[in-house]
């Protein structure tokens, strides 16, 4: 049996000639980078565990979440990383560079077949060039810095074949929003996904990046594009050496194969709250907006800038609307300047910021306020992720057109005169905004009161919001657990040491933040049970020795909030003591058990 792309890349970076799904192997990491959030904790782990840097030529810091240095805590954290970097001779891509994963491609640090690890949950964006990128927490990153390797479980692979021709006007963002409409947030959970078809092969680097970036929102380990000649030539120039791609064998085994007719794809938009809650844009037209945002690792590329400029040239942003544009890297920013695009943006009334993550990060432009309606090119619109308002996700063309129109619309339906909010509408929004609420002894068996939260897709911003990311003291984290999960804002006040949390699918989807695990540890929560977990969250929990258990069905447990449950990590048995019922869940793997009994990865 042949191998898939992911299996070949992992095997090439391990001691094995071949690997198969389910194998847990140590893999060599070609690029190891910590960002300005996560970075200070990596430094902390180094100092507490007396670690040494394995290879400074492969080790980096990237300051992309707060490249303006406008937040006091981020400024402190960046300086902590700078001091550590100076001491160890580590290169920093500082606040004037842009988004780390994009820089790795530009600088030739990542290339087809390479492996990269960062504290960015969208590191799998490198699947755009046929490389293996993963976002992981600060413990994993400290190990990668110090050993050059991390353990990884080989995932199952899925193949998606695209048939037909792409309809006129369908952008890469529309394509990935259509995929989210088909697969949702968890149907591809934990899979490595390979894309094939004539239209896939024609895609530019920028288009591939847009789609690969939102693999995280579909729950995938990574979305991999087999590199075409254009990608290979680009990466060969960037690396200064001949690059050969890694491709699946003809007889590779896929867990699932999907055939999709791309000719049926429509211009799409994500409704506020969930990236996968997508609808045909025609269903949302005429919704008035307060702001627009073009940028992020999903749509901050040169092609995105040109598309926005084409629509904005000779036009003005509607009165009362703020449009913010942030290129993904400084080289793209400079190219916008050289091509006169920055002038087009400024003449249209746009706020242009220096390169970085922007709307996805709490410290740069792109955030919105209570009651504010934003249309954004970002990859996430989880409640509170980009501020306290409502966020629709769309393509750069849609955002630019909507900013000019004053309401959500498409580039081919921009009105002669923009819509303007009436005084009555403004007062209504103000009123709506005013109402907005702002190492112990290890045992293989635990018992406690259960918090049963019957929800899918509880993401890391709901668990531990990004406005608290500058916190590095675990003792301060507990008070913020679930404070952005509707209906559970008072969880931290009511939870007691010894409690257990039970949820449904895809718990911990989203960012790579370790705090989303540590906040539960700080409260004394004993374990979480879920049907499935976000891939990064699962690693972070296991590496932190925080017990997470995966079940297939809760039906036989007859679980209700407040029941007393008992969990055996060794055999996977979960018992509802209150109801005298039992189910069999997954037992700890050898790796999870070893790390748990050791009190953590270190």
Gist of the model:
The chain is of the alpha/beta class. It folds into 3 domains: 5-264, Aconitase, domain 3; 268-434, Aconitase, domain 3; 445-598, Aconitase, domain 4 (Alpha-Beta Barrel).
Question: In angstroms, what separates the terminal alpha carbons?
Answer: 37 Å
CATH homologous superfamily designation of the largest domain: Aconitase, domain 3
Q: In which range does the helix fraction lie?
A: 25-40%
Number of domains: 3
Biggest sheet features: 7 strands, mixed
Q: Determine and state the CATH class of the largest domain.
A: Alpha Beta
State the strand order across the main sheet: 22-21-20-19-23-24-25
With helices defined by DSSP (H or I, 4 residues minimum), what is the helix count?
A: 20
Low-confidence stretches: none
Q: Which structural class do you get from the secondary structure elements? A: alpha/beta
Tell me the CATH topology of the largest domain.
Aconitase, domain 3
What characteristic shape results from the CA principal axes? globular
Question: Can you walk me through this structure?
Answer:
- The protein is α/β, with parallel strands linked by helices.
- The chain has 3 domains: 5-264, 2-Layer Sandwich (Aconitase, domain 3); 268-434, 2-Layer Sandwich (Aconitase, domain 3); 445-598, Aconitase, domain 4.
- It is built from 20 helices and 25 strands.
- The strands form 6 sheets. A 7-stranded mixed sheet has the order 22-21-20-19-23-24-25. Strands 4-3-2-5-6 form a 5-stranded parallel sheet, sandwiched between helices.
- Strand 3 (59-62), helix 3 (72-88) and strand 4 form a beta-alpha-beta unit.
- The longest helix is centred in the N-terminal third of the chain and has 17 residues, at 72-88.
């Amino acid at each position: 049996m042949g191998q898939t792309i992911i299996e070949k890349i992992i095997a090439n970076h391990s001691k094995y000639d071949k690997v198969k799904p389910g194998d847990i192997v140590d893999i060599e990491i070609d690029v190891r980078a910590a960002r300005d959030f996560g970075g200070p904790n990596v430094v902390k782990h180094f100092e507490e565990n007396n670690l040494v840097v394995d290879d400074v030529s492969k080790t980096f810091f990237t300051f992309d979440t707060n490249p303006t240095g406008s937040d006091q805590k981020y400024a402190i954290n960046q300086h902590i990383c700078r001091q550590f970097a100076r001491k160890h001779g580590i290169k920093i891509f500082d606040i004037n560079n842009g988004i780390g994963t994009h820089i790795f491609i530009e600088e030739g640090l990542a290339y087809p077949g390479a492996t990269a690890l960062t504290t960015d949950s969208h590191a799998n964006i490198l699947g755009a060039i046929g490389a293996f990128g993963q976002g992981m927490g600060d413990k994993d990153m400290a190990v990668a810095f110090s050993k050059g390797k991390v353990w990884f479980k080989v995932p199952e692979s899925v193949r998606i074949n695209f048939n037909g021709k792409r309809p006129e006007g369908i952008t890469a963002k529309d394509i990935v929003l259509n995929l989210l409409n088909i697969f949702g947030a968890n149907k591809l959970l934990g899979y490595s996904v390979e894309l094939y078809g004539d239209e896939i092969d024609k895609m530019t680097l920028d288009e591939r990046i847009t789609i690969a970036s939102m693999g995280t929102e579909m729950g995938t380990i990574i979305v991999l594009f087999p590199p075409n000649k254009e990608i290979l030539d680009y990466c060969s120039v960037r690396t200064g050496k001949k690059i050969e791609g890694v491709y699946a064998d003809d007889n590779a085994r896929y867990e699932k194969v999907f055939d999709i007719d791309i000719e049926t794809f429509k211009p799409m938009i994500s409704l506020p709250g969930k990236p996968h809650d997508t609808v045909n844009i025609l269903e949302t037209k005429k919704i008035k907006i307060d702001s627009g945002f073009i940028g992020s690792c999903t749509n901050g590329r040169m092609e995105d800038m040109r598309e926005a400029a084409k629509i904005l040239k000779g036009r003005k942003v509607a009165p009362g609307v703020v449009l913010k544009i942030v290129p993904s890297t400084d080289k793209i920013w400079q190219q916008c300047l050289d091509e006169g695009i920055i002038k087009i943006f400024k003449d249209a009334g746009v706020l242009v910021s220096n390169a970085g993550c922007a709307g996805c990060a709490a410290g740069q432009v792109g955030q919105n306020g209570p009651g504010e309606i934003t249309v954004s090119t970002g990859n996430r619109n989880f409640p509170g992720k980009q501020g306290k308002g409502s966020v629709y996700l769309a393509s750069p063309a849609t955002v630019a057109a909507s900013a000019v129109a004053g309401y959500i619309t498409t580039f081919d339906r921009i009105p002669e005169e923009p819509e303007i909010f009436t005084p009555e509408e403004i007062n209504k929004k103000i009123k709506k905004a005013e109402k907005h609420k702002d190492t112990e002894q290890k045992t293989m068996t635990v018992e406690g009161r259960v918090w049963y939260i019957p929800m899918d897709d509880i993401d890391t911003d709901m668990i531990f919001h990004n406005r608290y990311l500058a916190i590095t003291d675990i003792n301060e984290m507990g008070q913020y657990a679930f404070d952005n999960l509707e209906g559970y804002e008072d969880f931290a006040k009511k939870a007691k040491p010894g409690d257990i949390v039970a949820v449904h699918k895809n718990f911990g989807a989203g960012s790579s933040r370790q705090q989303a695990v540590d906040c539960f540890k700080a409260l004394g929560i004993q374990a979480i049970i879920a049907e499935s977990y976000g891939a990064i969250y699962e690693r972070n929990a296991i590496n932190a020795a925080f017990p997470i258990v995966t079940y297939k069905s809760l039906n036989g447990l007859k679980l209700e909030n407040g029941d007393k449950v008992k969990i055996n990590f060794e055999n996977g048995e979960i018992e509802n003591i209150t109801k005298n019922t039992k189910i069999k869940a997954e037992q700890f793997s050898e790796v999870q058990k070893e790390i748990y009994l050791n009190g953590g990865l270190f």
